[in-house]
Amino acid sequence: MTIAPALPPSLAAGTATVPRPGLRSPRPGAVMAILLPLLFLVPALLLPLASVLSKAVQDRAGSYVGLANLTEYLSSPHLAQSLSNSLTLSGLSAGISVALAFLYAYGLTRTRVPGRGFFALVAQLPLLAPSLLPGISLVYLFGNQGWLKGWLGGHSIYGSIGIVMGEVFWTFPHAVMILTAALSLADARLYEAARALKAGPWRRFLTVTLPGVRAGLVSAFVAVFAMVITDFGVPKVIGGNTPLLATDIYKQVIGQQNFQRGAIVALLLLLPALIAFLVDRAMAAKPAAMMGGKAVALVPDRQPWLDRLFFLFCALMAVCLLAIPSTALFASLAKLWPYNLTPGLWHYRFEMMDGGGWDAYANSVRLSALVALFGTLLIFPAAWLVAKGRAPRLLRQVPHALALLPLAVPGLVLGLGYVFFLADPGNPLRVLNGTLTLLVVCTIAHYYSVPHLSAITALRRLSPELEEAGRSLKVPALLTLWRVTLPMALPVVLDMAAYLFMSAMTTVSAVVFLYTPDTMLASLSVLAMDDAGDTAPAAAMAMLIFFTGAALRAAWALMTRGLLRRARRWQTAPAGV
């Protein structure tokens, strides 16, 4: 005789049985639902990438030539220079960025530096601007007419030095976020044991701190390396004649209309990013030290000399971080740098410049709003189906694995894939060419992974008992999602929307091949004006993007506070209400 498991008292009146997870068979509807994310990911991600691979093995006439294009390009001395420069500058930028970010994050988490909230806020400022902004500001600071050009000892900012400096600024907040999270998880008992064993500060750092954050250091380095090697904005503005793989794609496709060579470079650019992604995933799969239930949170001791030292370092880094947008802002207001510094709004008259004018800015705001809206409406339910769906686990892993793919796909490669994919006359999706809808789809696909992982993490932290209770009470799954799951995960959902909005405002590489004069974007307008020699208007448009992001952050914080209070009112309601 089988005895049914006992029900919680709150459910006993609503049902007589609880379905046992081990005996539950998937419904056809659940299986079909888990396939829905694939309806977006396959045409928006897989097919464009397949088109890049297909174009790489064809000649200009469209005939199959196998590896002939690759062999021809590999025999070119230009490739060796581009590949060497890309790997060297990416490794150097990643090393400098991670080292500085580690010290900065250490000061925020392991010392009692005054003004930690301010320093944490300043570290996030580069996220508000396109990667073109640091290049423009560095030109004004260290260029031929820059105020600080003598600081480089006679070396030119146009080239390797400028690329490394610009990339360090642009990637710094990403490294800080990763390392702050790693340094925040520490068990004070380990440090007490080290002190009991007479270990000095330096030995405690080498034997306790560094091993505890090793995975975070590797992840930060890999993330920054992948970002730099695939970035297009900084090298385009300040790279000079330094050949890189990212700028090679642009020159081959836009400058020479050599799509086959562009496809080969795209595949080569995809390889380092893919390797970096695999290394990061391998590190994540290794067992690491975790905060157990008996762990004691580490509260840094007050050490006046160390606190002052890290305050000086954080203050110096904050000055450097603030100098980039401040320089761009000043340059956008100065009438004629550096001869006439009278402030005014002359350079904000975008209708007088190349690059789409104010229409480009309006297009960016429209694009960002659509990406935030439809991206959130797509990604969160898809993540819910993966994390909470009733389809077999193996089937749920298919869209999950595909959702992680954009992490390893550079924006230039994805954008070029859309060009090849939509060039086929028989493709019914060809009608999207030149439309804002295409830019929305491409941008969502490009930034799909981070919101998906955020949603998956939040949903897996919610107890499965919530869904089991709903099924026991015969409540439809969608109603449980709307009434229970969504309010509890609302902070993550709102962060997803904000992330997608700002990513769409600052994107360059993924859409640089896809826009038309009618769909020109603000970030691409910065590129166009800089190419035309209108550097001050380019700085003005970049700062407009920057201030849009800052205003969004402020408005988002005010708006979401009320939404969260209303959505979570039931969680704080008195018992019996």
Q: Keyphrases for this structure?
A:
577 residues; mainly alpha; MetI-like fold; globular; disordered C terminus
Largest sheet: 2 strands, antiparallel
CATH 2nd-level architecture of the largest domain: Orthogonal Bundle
End-to-end Cα distance: 40 Å
The number of helical elements comes to 24
Provide the β-strand percentage band. Answer: under 5%
Category by helix and strand content: mainly alpha
Number of domains: 2
User: CATH homologous superfamily of the largest domain?
Assistant: MetI-like
Task: Describe the global form.
Answer: globular
CATH topology of the largest domain: MetI-like fold
> What is the number of strand segments?
2
Q: Which regions are unreliable across 5 or more consecutive residues at pLDDT < 50?
A: 1-25, 289-295, 570-577
Q: Class of the largest domain, according to the CATH hierarchy? A: Mainly Alpha
Walkthrough of the structure:
By secondary structure, this protein is mostly helical. It is 67% helix and 1% strand. It has two domains: 26-53 and 346-571, MetI-like fold (Orthogonal Bundle); 76-282 and 298-339, MetI-like fold, CATH 1.10.3720.10. The chain has a two-stranded antiparallel ribbon. Helix 2 packs parallel to helix 16 (393-404). The chain is globular and about 75 Å long. The two termini are 40 Å apart. The model is unreliable at 1-25, 289-295 and 570-577 (pLDDT under 50).
Gist of the model:
With 577 residues, the chain is mainly α. It is 67% helix and 1% strand.
